[in-house]
Amino acid sequence: MLFEEYWPYFVVGLFLYVTVRVSYVFYKGLQKRNMGLDKKNEDFGKLNRTNQVNDVDMDKDSSSEEDGIIPALPSDLKHIPFNFEKIPEEIAIAKSEEFFEMMNKRRTVRQFSKQPVPLEIIHNIIKTAGTAPSGAHTEPWTYVLVSSPQTKQTIREIIEEEEEINYTRRMGKVWTTDLKPLRTNWVKEYLTDAPYLILVFRQTYSLRDNGNKKLHYYNEQSVSIATGFLLAAIQYAGLVSLTSTPLNCGPALRTLLERPTNEKLALLLPVGYPADDCLVPDLYRKSLKEILVEF
């Protein structure tokens, strides 16, 4: 009876209670959120001030380092007139065509003759590779020339052991399938048949006279360019070669050849004359139209 008479008041009271309660909860949540934002802003301000201080300190350090930096090349490096002799255009065209025809005969050879090659030819070839450009003229290359039969045999054993694992486990079916038409596998007879092996190491850095590191900028690109010079010189001298990248053999070969840790094996090239029964894949090279974009 009492409820029936006063139920509207109960409903209104309940509504007011719920409204106040929800508003209180919302207000507390908003207050906590604002406090959190204030804390984050305060932390960010501290971090920002710290970073500014660190930036100043870094600037000071950079300034002090710059003040003490000595260039790898002499500060007073002399610049001299470039000795350039221009040749007539018709001769230049003929020479460029002649050079192309010579290089177009180059092939990757895997069957080598054991016929000896005069050492002077190999030295001239490596000297030619040494004329390649390099980042900041650091010349980040070392050419290790191997002619010792015992050392060549050890190199072959190291490489063939890893190559068998590469072909059977690491390289995968797609890679090994692509290599099948070239008739190559993990047996590398050319490593002991060729009279010379040239192992090209790239120097990641060297040491100055005071013992500090001398950075070798763009050492990978520089060594790649130098290897191109090397291949061209090999072809020009009437010899043949093969560019190989012994996978996972670098550390073992570096140790065998007593190279320092700042040198990384880039390429291995057997060099000599082709065997009498040498076969090469009948491949074609892309035409000028396929490789050139002109604007």
From TrEMBL:
All copies of domain Nitroreductase, residue ranges: 105-273
Q: Which GO terms describe its molecular function?
A: iodotyrosine deiodinase activity; ribonucleotide binding
Q: Which cofactor does it need?
A: FMN
Spell out the InterPro entries in the cross-references: Nitroreductase, Nitroreductase-like, Nitroreductase/BluB
| Regions crossing the membrane | 6-27
GO BP: tyrosine metabolic process
Q: SUPFAM superfamilies given for it? A: FMN-dependent nitroreductase-like
Q: How is this protein annotated for GO cellular component?
A: plasma membrane
Q: Which UniProt keywords apply?
A: Flavoprotein, FMN, Membrane, Oxidoreductase, Transmembrane, Transmembrane helix
Keyword Transmembrane helix in annotation: yes
Q: Which family does it belong to?
A: Belongs to the nitroreductase family.
The name this protein goes by in its record: Nitroreductase domain-containing protein
Organism, scientific name: Phaedon cochleariae
